[in-house]
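Retry 2 of 3 after timeout on previous attempt. Resubmitting structure tokens to design endpoint.
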């Protein structure tokens, strides 16, 4: 392990608030920053780039990306297993390079079949890179520090997404092929930078030994962990809620001005960047992790209730203020959920299988993005305020179910893996 109590940045210093400890955690954070700048630019510009530069129809873009992310979803566990067996640093570097190559290929493809191949390569590389990075973090950082360091990385991600979105916004402002091509070239370069930064961290030993009779992808047989991954995916439905459903709700059902849509994303990005590390400090074991997830459910229920309230005959200024409160509550819930989920996903995964376990747990965002839009738009836009409350109840119920699922999973771990069994007993649900 690399991070110890003696090499942490001193508490209270400016660096301690903004950056993880020097060494491997900081290099991982800068690599994540480079990744997220590219991701932010990709998210903002990809749809118009594929239509206006690549020359595809809207239907082709939708179909291609759906197929690509479905295949990427299926590749997460095998690539995580590869990181376990070959070493997560080398696999992460390889996948960062393949992500860069797939993004760069978009600059040249001008047909749907080639676009589909490039999109599949991009989705597989991104999904595998996430699993390998998580395994690398688990191997470099002491268990007690993983959630704290992961919080620094998440804060960095949001800062990078904001920078990337700004770059994408410049391309959208010019709305020309050279502008889009420039942004995608920057995106490709960002993953080359990430690969170089990952190369600077120490290597983590590969786990080449396998118990006789043990399945190669053991996580697929771990039912308690699978239940926890599914519960996490359900909680992650907040992602399309903020990016898709809330903007449609604001435009169709409230009197708030249109600029409020952008302000909600600003609140979310700034909130996570500034406060994720602070909120994660209290999550140090499975008991505090389940409590954090439960608080996330309460906050998300409250956010849904406030979103519902915004449609009841308010003036533009009042509606805007109410929606800002709803976004702040949802952002608080997001940070509490993330803090608890990181601790749970790391703490219940075998040390020699972190890659495949993180790859499996990391399928949650893909599931939420595939199922969330249709489900949430039906409930919220079809049922109105009642739909918001149903969604909020889903969050609360799922968060309360996490505690029993964690205790079930902890009971099924080998005794040597449960370092502090008392932490998962009692009223942790």
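Retry 2 succeeded. Sequence:
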């Amino acid at each position: 392990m690399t991070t110890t109590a003696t090499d942490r940045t001193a508490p209270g210093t400016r660096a301690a608030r903004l950056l993880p400890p020097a060494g491997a955690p900081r290099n991982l954070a800068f690599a994540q920053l480079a990744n997220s700048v590219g991701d932010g630019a990709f998210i903002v510009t990809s749809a118009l780039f594929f239509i206006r530069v690549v020359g595809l129809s809207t239907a082709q873009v939708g179909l291609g990306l759906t197929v690509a992310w479905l295949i990427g979803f299926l590749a997460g566990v095998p690539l995580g297993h590869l990181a376990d067996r070959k070493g997560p640093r080398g696999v992460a570097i390889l996948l960062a390079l393949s992500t860069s190559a797939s993004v760069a290929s978009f600059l040249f493809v001008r047909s749907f079949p080639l676009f589909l191949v490039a999109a599949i390569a991009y989705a597989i590389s991104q999904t595998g890179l996430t699993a390998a990075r998580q395994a690398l973090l688990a191997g470099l950082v002491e268990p007690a520090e993983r959630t704290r360091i992961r919080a620094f990385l998440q804060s960095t991600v949001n800062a990078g997404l904001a920078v990337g979105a700004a770059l994408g916004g410049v391309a959208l402002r010019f709305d020309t092929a050279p502008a889009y091509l420039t942004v995608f070239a920057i995106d490709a370069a960002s993953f080359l930078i990430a690969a170089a930064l990952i190369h600077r961290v120490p290597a983590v030993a590969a786990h080449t030994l396998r118990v006789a009779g043990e399945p190669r992808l053991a996580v697929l047989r771990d039912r308690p962990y699978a239940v926890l991954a599914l519960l996490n995916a359900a909680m992650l439905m907040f992602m399309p809620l903020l990016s898709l459903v809330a903007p449609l709700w604001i435009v169709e059902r409230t009197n708030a001005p249109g600029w409020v849509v952008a302000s909600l994303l600003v609140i979310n990005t700034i909130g996570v960047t500034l406060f994720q590390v602070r909120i994660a400090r209290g999550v140090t074991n499975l008991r505090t992790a389940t409590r954090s997830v439960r608080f996330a459910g309460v906050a998300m229920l409250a956010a849904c209730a406030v979103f519902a309230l915004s449609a009841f005959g308010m003036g533009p200024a009042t509606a805007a203020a109410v929606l800002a409160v709803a976004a702040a509550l949802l952002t608080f819930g997001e940070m509490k959920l993330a803090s608890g989920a990181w601790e749970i996903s790391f703490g219940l995964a075998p040390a020699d299988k972190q890659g495949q376990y993180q790859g499996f747990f990391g399928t949650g965002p893909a599931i939420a993005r595939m199922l969330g839009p249709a489900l949430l738009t039906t409930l919220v836009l079809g049922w109105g305020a009642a739909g918001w409350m149903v969604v909020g109840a889903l969050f609360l119920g799922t968060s309360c179910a996490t505690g029993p699922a964690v205790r079930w999973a902890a009971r099924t771990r080998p005794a040597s893996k449960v370092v502090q069994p008392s932490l998962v007993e009692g009223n942790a649900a």
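Attempt log closed. The chain has two domains: 18-199, 222-416.
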